[in-house]
Amino acid sequence: MxxxxxxxxxxxxxxxxxxxxxxxxxxxxxxxxxxxDIRLGYNHRGIEKACEERTYIQDMYLIERIxxxxxxxxxxxxxxxxxxxxxxxxxxxALYIRTLIAELERIxxxxxxxxxxxxxxxxxxxxxxxxxDREIVxxxxxxxxxxxxxxxxxTIGGVRRNITREQAEKVLGGxxxxxxxxxxxxxxxxxxxxxxxxxxxxxxxxxxxxxxxDAVGPTxxxxxxxxDVRRDDHxxxxxxxxxxxxxxxxxxxxxxxxxxVKELMESYQIIRQVLQKMPDGPISIKAPRxxxxxxxxxxxxAPRGEDVHYVKSNGTEKPERVKVRAPTLxxxxxxxxxxxxxxxxxxxxxxxxxxxxxxxxxxxVTIEYPNKRKNEVISWQALxxxxxxWHRSRGIDFRALNKKFSERIKG
Length: 411
What we know:
Layout: E1 6-11, E2 23-29, E3 32-39, H1 47-52, H2 56-64, H3 71-86, H4 92-120, H5 124-145, E4 154-155, E5 158-159, H6 165-191, H7 193-199, H8 207-212, H9 217-221, H10 229-232, H11 253-277, E6 294-302, E7 305-313, E8 319-325, H12 327-339, H13 347-353, H14 358-361, E9 367-369, E10 374-376, H15 380-392, H16 399-410
Helix pairs in contact: 2-3, 4-5, 4-11, 4-13, 5-6, 6-11
């Protein structure tokens, strides 16, 4: 505590306002936020290092598990880089199927966010409506891919599943229902006085600050930054599809709400075009197990913003380096700015408004030893062993269970 009016409080890493564990140290003067320190790292899983110990095929499924919401975004971004290094020309039909799954994932993510945002401001009816409708798109994804979350649709050189005419008809039927309900959400967002007053002027990020802080996705577009990787550096089938990049000039949480609900309408139009223009033909080509030496950077417009994957190959069947920059890492810089001089009660919705995914974001680059004045890059095996010992020292020991499991498998 600095004086009788200023003090610091911790928010997290475990807190009802946070859907994932992260730590915020909030400096307050009364109810006003004077500054925020953000500490990431509670969800680190060593995925990048784990990729270096596995084949490209294994990595594809591992990468998909970076995020339960943007699983297709990450796997597509990764294999785009691998396919570029290998010089593979993916069949057109496969690119259209990837685009279809990408837009269904965007709808699922935006409806999830809309429900969370409603919950954060006490509008739980909106949460229930949005998540009810989200089930429609989840069922579509299960119908098309066999899974509701980690779809496993991608393979290096194409996709694993084709789409039948009957499935396409089901998707169009579901989209029609969702479109009608989204019109209601747009009406609520633009005409409901309570929402306008609660979200307007909260979490302000100007156009200049969005550029300076490198914000991405709906967070940036709500500050009138007209950027979208789907249009600016198109991939999959987006080069053949017409759509509008939605922007807004409110520069606040209200603007981020408007951008997301309007992006839902664009996604419906994209899906209709994809199903109408999808060409016949193969859905994959044979890819080599060993990828030629080289490196590539892949960009992808995930529901939360620009996703970036870097892959370096050394000519073997395992990558030499995999690096992931998820959208939340880009947007988290702006959160500190948005919270400054705001009330503490606004903090949950301001954080939620970037649609954070801390599991996507946390990465370990080096271990710092301040007393020894040295840094060290940890190997996957060392990290694995450290994790086991760390939990064992706290009484969590799976040795007996592992032994019993191994004996059962052998038997």
